[in-house]
């Protein structure tokens, strides 16, 4: 059986890995240039910033075993405490390691699907088509899956109940370390919830001070439609207020995550319509964490292979 997986983040890659282990053929599609989704690292001018997921924890056996393997392979190490892991030398090292050996079509923004006697065919915004799939898995934020399915006349009831909060991230570089913050700082009130000294993560260039600032969900919602050039000075001012550090950054950029963190999960490990052969997984099923996305991908793969065994 051949499965198309749309989305090569933690959920899509976990699903792909489990399906491959069960002997299935898998092709992944992702709209970005690389894999990882919100497990993201931006590299610019010799600087590197993990501007999405900051670290991850592994509480369940399945993800713990995967993380142990990644640590042994040098793609992952702990940061700040033994419970918190990060990719090395950047967060994307983790999805890249999970993606090894797969056929992955990047820069393919899936925009439609149709079914005929030969199976499912996907079409992309870039004008490509790929067909002959027995099943299609959507491993994207649910608010992106719902309209995509609807545009092709399909639906997966229940997935629309998940709610995301946005997050606006400010990426900064300085000529000297931000004083008063060892690795990261959390804030309960105000525009900013999180400041991380990215350069303190293992395998980064410790000589280049790089900082990731995350705005709160409320602030991000209120400012999401501002152009980055307009929100950048506002967030920089909030950073200065929060830290008392007023050096001019040598680099400053804003990244807007429209679907960043899950506020209300859908409450099921994954969704699969066995009649249609269409499934959906992602952090939005269980909760806004890398491990939740991974577990959701595994859950969907289990539903698919169990259905195959029962048929
Ligand atoms: C700012 C921020 C901070 C976070 N901090 C943490 C943290 O500290 N710890 C933690 O555990 N988690 C954190 N998270 C959450 C974590 O990153 C996510 O839970 C997890 O990475 C989600 O994985 P996923 O596979 O479900 O989705 P995603 O990573 O979003 O993957 C979806 C993929 O689908 C692709 N895609 C979308 N639309 C299409 C399309 N039409 N066609 C093809 N491809 C498409 C995207 O390019 C993407 O690669 C954070 C997230 C953000 C944004």
Keyword list:
5-stranded antiparallel β-sheet, 8 helices, binds flavin-adenine dinucleotide, 2 domains, 18 strands, 6-stranded mixed β-sheet, 311 residues, alpha+beta, Polyamine Oxidase, Chain A, domain 2
Describe the structure.
This protein has 311 residues and is an alpha+beta fold. It folds into two domains: 2-36 and 99-161 and 266-310, FAD/NAD(P)-binding domain (3-Layer(bba) Sandwich), CATH 3.50.50.60; 40-89 and 163-264, Polyamine Oxidase, Chain A, domain 2. Helices cover 28% and strands 32% of the residues. The protein has eight helices and 18 strands. The strands form five sheets. A six-stranded mixed β-sheet has the order 7-2-1-11-18-17, covered by helices on one side. The chain has a five-stranded antiparallel β-sheet with strand order 13-14-15-12-16, with helices on one face. It has a three-stranded antiparallel β-sheet with strand order 8-9-10. Helix 1 (10-21) runs parallel beside helix 8. The chain is globular. 45% of the residues are buried. The mean pLDDT is 97. The protein binds flavin-adenine dinucleotide.
What fraction of residues sit in β-strands? 25-35%
**Unique bound compounds:** flavin-adenine dinucleotide
Spatial order of the strands forming the largest sheet: 7-2-1-11-18-17
Number of domains: 2
pLDDT < 50 runs, ≥5 residues: none
């Amino acid at each position: 059986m051949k499965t198309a997986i749309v989305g090569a983040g933690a959920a899509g890659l976990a699903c792909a890995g489990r399906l491959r282990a069960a002997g299935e053929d898998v092709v992944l599609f992702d709209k970005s240039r690389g894999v990882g989704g919100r497990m993201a690292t931006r590299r610019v001018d010799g600087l590197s910033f993990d501007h999405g997921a900051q670290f991850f924890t592994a509480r369940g056996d399945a993800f713990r075993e995967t993380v142990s393997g990644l640590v042994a392979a040098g793609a992952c190490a702990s940061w700040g405490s033994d419970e918190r892991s990060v990719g090395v030398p950047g967060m994307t090292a983790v999805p890249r390691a999970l993606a090894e050996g797969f056929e992955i079509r990047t820069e393919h923004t899936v925009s439609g699907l149709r079914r005929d006697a030969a199976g499912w065919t996907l079409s992309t915004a870039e004008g490509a088509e790929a067909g002959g799939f027995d099943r299609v898995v959507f491993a994207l934020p649910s608010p992106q899956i719902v309209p995509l399915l609807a545009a092709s006349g399909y639906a997966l009831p229940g997935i629309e109940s998940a709610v995301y909060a946005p997050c606006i991230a400010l990426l900064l570089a300085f000529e000297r370390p931000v004083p008063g913050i060892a690795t990261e700082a959390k804030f309960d009130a105000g525009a900013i919830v999180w400041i991380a000294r990215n350069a303190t993560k293992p395998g980064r260039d410790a000589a280049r001070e790089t900082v990731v600032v995350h705005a709160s969900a409320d602030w991000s919602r209120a400012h999401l439609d501002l152009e980055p050039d307009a929100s950048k000075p506002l967030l920089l001012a909030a950073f200065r207020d929060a830290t008392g550090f007023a050096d001019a950054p040598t680099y400053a950029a804003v990244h807007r995550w429209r679907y960043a963190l899950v506020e209300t999960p859908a409450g099921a490990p994954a969704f699969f319509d066995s009649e249609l052969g269409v499934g959906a997984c992602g952090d939005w099923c269980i909760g806004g964490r890398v491990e939740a996305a991974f577990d959701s991908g595994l859950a969907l793969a289990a539903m698919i292979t169990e259905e195959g065994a029962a048929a």
